[in-house]
Amino acid sequence: MNSDIFLPSQVAWATGALAGGPLIRKTTRLTDLPGIFADGEAWRRGNPQQSVYDVDVLGSPAGEGALCVGVTHLHTGNVGDEFFMTRGHFHARREQGEVYFGLRGVGLLLLQTEAGDARLEEVTAGSVHIIPPFTAHRLINTGKETLSSLAVWPVIAGHDYAALAEGFALRVFTSGQGFEVRHG
Ligand code: F6R
Ligand code: ZN
Q1: What is the pTM of this model?
Q2: Which of 17, 9, 33, 118 has its CA nearest to residue 82?
Q3: How does pLDDT run across 128-155, given as a tens digit for each residue?
Q4: How many CB atoms lie within 10 A of CB 39?
Q5: Most buried of 61, 80, 108, 166 (most Cβ within 10 A)?
Q6: Which of 86, 123, 135 to mutate to test the pocket of ligand 1 (most atoms within 8 A of CB)?
């Protein structure tokens, strides 16, 4: 009898679907993202109930040293000419980093230091993104399908959204078949 062997949770690499464990899903809709997109009029014209992204998190780990595992499914779309993106945050515990892995779709990971220096990394299936301490992060879907990304972060990290009330230093807009990066 192998009564000591437990079946772990599973991630389907092609889709990012998590299974085999208690899962908490949080859906962020257009109405939840006031002031996030550059074109406020376009945001108001959109369907407030439209889902922009879903985040599935495995279990409810707690305490110093525990890790959270979650998958963000960022849908395709735009507000005006700006691509759908996550709200973006610093960790409340600024010294805590995180790792993102691209699973499906194409997009960008926007990273920004506390000094306001911003850079972008390409997210594709298989890409690995090490988010350093003291660095805000946001996903942007520049593709034509859902962008799914697996993330692992310390449960104590917490989220600080307020520190980015003025927005990130870079924005990404549609341009022909591709994208264009603008400052401010
Ligand atoms: C956790 C983390 C991700 C994001 C998710 C949604 O630290 O970085 O799981 O929480 O991509 O983005 P936000 O939290 O910015 O709405
Ligand atoms: Zn984070």
Answers
A1: 0.97
A2: 33
A3: 999 999 999 999 999 999 999 999 999 9
A4: 15
A5: 108
A6: 86
